[in-house]
UniProtKB/TrEMBL annotation:
Subcellular locations according to the entry: Nucleus
Signal peptide range in chain numbering: none
Keywords, ordered alphabetically: Chromatin regulator, Methyltransferase, Nucleus, RNA-binding, S-adenosyl-L-methionine, Transcription, Transcription regulation, Transferase
Keyword Transcription regulation: yes
GO molecular function: histone H3K4 methyltransferase activity; RNA binding
Listed PANTHER family: HISTONE-LYSINE N-METHYLTRANSFERASE SETD1 (PTHR45814), HISTONE-LYSINE N-METHYLTRANSFERASE SETD1B (PTHR45814:SF1)
Domain of life: Eukaryota
Protein name per Swiss-Prot or TrEMBL: SET1B methyltransferase
One Pfam match: SET
Claim: Methyltransferase is one of the keywords in the record: yes
Gene3D superfamilies noted in UniProt: SET domain
Domain SET residue range list: 96-213
GO cellular component terms, semicolon-separated: Set1C/COMPASS complex
Higher taxonomy: Eukaryota, Metazoa, Chordata, Craniata, Vertebrata
Length: 235
């Protein structure tokens, strides 16, 4: 029952001759190593040969020193808005390593898990953008629900970011009268965002704090930051 299949012949132009007259009915052809090497050598030589009317320019690889020089030049040429946008894009792709745990200031706090240099973006304050009218309604509703703390951050006169039920680790940052960070409003793609910047070098396991800058009110909120120049109240 076993019979040998006729050996496929090659034509003069190098193409195989189909015995059955149809390439699909004969399955796959096994290519010899000589044919493979011949094809690869021809394709490699064609790829390495540049066109005659073009000039190829090679650039030396960037060293760490050249990279730092380019970053320094970029920061000097770009303005504050452009540098903020550049830092924000870097923050999106390479987030700082942070953790939240119990704080000696108040309840929960945010701590650094890696050294953070001065004037670096630490984290974005994420939440829902709402208007002042909605913020007043939610504040009353949070009090009725027994939520002791509301995490609302004012962006401008009309916009407030509410991170009480929809936010990230930034809502755990505690207030301090002598903080190591500060909050800044930047504009990214015509949308205002709140970003926490570092004022100074922050060590590992150091708590991240900033000044809430609450407006002055008659009913005072006690401050528990414990710093030397503590004002005693948040407002």
């Amino acid at each position: 029952t076993s019979f040998s299949t006729p050996k496929k012949k090659k034509r003069d132009d190098g193409m195989r001759e189909h015995v059955t007259g149809c390439a699909r009915s004969e399955g796959y052809y096994k290519i010899d190593k000589k044919d493979k090497l011949k094809y690869l050598n021809n394709s490699r030589a064609f790829a390495e040969e540049p066109p005659a009317d073009t000039q190829v320019r090679t650039h030396p690889p960037l060293t760490d020193r050249r990279r730092s020089e380019q970053r320094r030049l970029l920061s000097s040429f770009t303005g504050s808005c452009d540098s903020d946008l550049l830092k924000f894009n870097q923050l999106k792709f390479r987030k700082k390593k942070l953790k939240f745990c119990k704080s000696h200031i108040h309840d929960w706090g945010l701590f650094a898990m890696e050294p953070i240099a001065a004037d670096e973006m630490v984290i974005e304050y994420v939440g829902q953008n709402i208007r002042q009218v909605i913020a007043d309604m939610r504040e009353k509703r949070y009090e009725d629900e027994g939520i002791g703390s509301s995490y609302m951050f004012r962006v401008d006169h009309d916009t407030i970011i509410d991170a009480t039920k929809c936010g990230n680790f930034a809502r755990f940052i505690n207030h301090s009268c002598n903080p190591n960070c500060y909050a800044k409003v930047i504009t990214v793609e015509s949308q205002k965002k709140i970003v926490i910047y570092s004022k100074q070098h922050i060590n590992v396991n150091e708590e991240i704090t900033y000044d809430y800058k609450f407006p002055i009110e008659d009913v005072k909120i006690p401050c528990l930051c414990g710093s030397e120049n503590c004002r005693g109240t948040l407002n």
